[in-house]
């Protein structure tokens, strides 16, 4: 029986988790096929007609402990999602009893470990600092872009645009983020951060995610902002980042950018055949 037809007959199990309010639907496809399509992801992501999420993550078998695939709420894909990676790492640690795992994504191979006190750390890899890697539309210095506010461009497997501001709370993020997500310098669109430096190891940040909108937290955005702040000499390489949903700790080391914070398994459920059929 084709995988989709089977799901239409039996439903599709899923897990709901969040990292600081950055919420995810997780589908485990290691034992059974989960034929996720952009249309299905978009339908599940709708907060009134579906389950609702910032990203959907699919766990697949791979050469490492697992391979992860990510979808945004609009059905588009993303190579990286830091908080979802932390959530799945915690899920798999609880499942296996292990304190360290290796996961693969389109971003590359990521190492995760138990950080104690209910926190999980993931090495999100080395930041992409060249304009081609971010990517940007043309050659330029990524430290200060020729955009009002001179934001910094950083790639973390997905593109980021970080504005350093005097007061992050004062920025009308819905309007601001929507405007810069589609800036012509970013051919693949971009995540947008507004960051206020509180001290040499402390940042307040708010996030607009491409394909999603305003989110309470973002792991890859936090990594990108920490890298941008350190490159500009505003902070050291180890910082606390306070987001709308809570706090992440970022440490840019020689082996990559480590991100640490809490996760929460909210509930498990099953998408009904009726719902799956409604999506065509």
CATH homology-level superfamily of the largest domain: Diaminopimelate Epimerase, Chain A, domain 1
What is the beta-strand fraction?
A: 35-45%
Spans of at least 5 consecutive residues with low confidence? none
Please tell me how large the radius of gyration is.
18 Å
Number of H- or I-type helical stretches:
6
Overall pLDDT confidence: 94
Counting DSSP E segments of at least 2 residues, the number of strands comes to 17
**Which structural class do the helices and strands define?**
alpha+beta
CATH topology of the largest domain: Diaminopimelate Epimerase, Chain A, domain 1
Given the C-alpha coordinates, what overall shape results? globular
Q: What is the first-to-last residue Cα distance?
A: 18 Å
Oligomeric state:
single chain
Strand and helix order = HEEHEEEHEEEEEHEEEHEEEEH
Task: Give the tally of structural domains.
Answer: 2
What is the CATH architecture assignment of the largest domain? Roll
Largest beta sheet, briefly? 17 strands, mixed
CATH class of the largest domain: Alpha Beta
Helical content (DSSP H or I, runs of 4+): 10-25%
Break the fold down into its secondary structure elements and pairings:
Layout: H1 3-10, E1 12-19, E2 22-28, H2 38-45, E3 55-60, E4 66-72, E5 77-78, H3 82-96, E6 100-105, E7 108-116, E8 119-123, E9 152-155, E10 159-164, H4 173-181, E11 191-199, E12 202-209, E13 213-215, H5 219-231, E14 238-243, E15 246-253, E16 256-262, E17 264-271, H6 273-278
Parallel strand pairs: 2-3, 4-6, 10-11, 12-14
Antiparallel strand pairs: 1-2, 1-17, 3-4, 4-5, 6-7, 7-8, 8-16, 9-10, 11-12, 12-13, 14-15, 15-16
């Amino acid at each position: 029986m084709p995988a989709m037809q089977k799901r239409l007959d039996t439903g599709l199990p899923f897990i709901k988790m969040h990292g600081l309010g950055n919420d995810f639907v997780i589908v485990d496809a290691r034992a059974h096929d989960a034929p996720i399509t952009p249309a299905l992801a978009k339908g599940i992501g709708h907060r009134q007609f579906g389950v609702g999420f910032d990203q959907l993550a699919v766990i697949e078998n791979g050469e490492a402990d697992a391979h992860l695939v990510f979808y945004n709420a609009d059905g588009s894909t993303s190579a990286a999602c830091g908080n979802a990676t932390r959530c799945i790492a915690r899920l798999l640690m609880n499942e296996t009893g292990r304190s360290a795992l290796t996961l693969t994504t389109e971003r590359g191979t990521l190492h995760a470990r138990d950080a104690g006190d209910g926190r999980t750390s993931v090495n999100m890899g080395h930041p992409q600092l060249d304009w081609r890697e971010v990517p940007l539309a043309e050659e330029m210095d990524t430290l200060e872009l020729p955009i009002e506010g001179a934001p910094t461009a950083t790639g973390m497997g997905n593109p980021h645009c970080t504005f350093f501001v005097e007061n992050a709370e004062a920025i009308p993020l819905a309007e601001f983020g929507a405007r810069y997500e589609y800036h012509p310098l970013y051919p693949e669109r971009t995540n947008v951060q507004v960051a206020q430096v509180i001290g040499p190891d402390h940042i307040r940040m708010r996030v607009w995610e491409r394909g999603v909108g305003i989110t309470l937290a973002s792991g890859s955005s936090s990594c990108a902002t920490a890298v941008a702040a350190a490159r500009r000499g505003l902070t050291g390489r180890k910082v606390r980042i306070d987001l709308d949903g809570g706090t992440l700790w970022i440490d840019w080391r020689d082996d990559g950018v480590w991100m640490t914070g809490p996760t929460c398994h909210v509930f498990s459920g099953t998408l009904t055949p009726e719902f799956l059929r409604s999506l065509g």
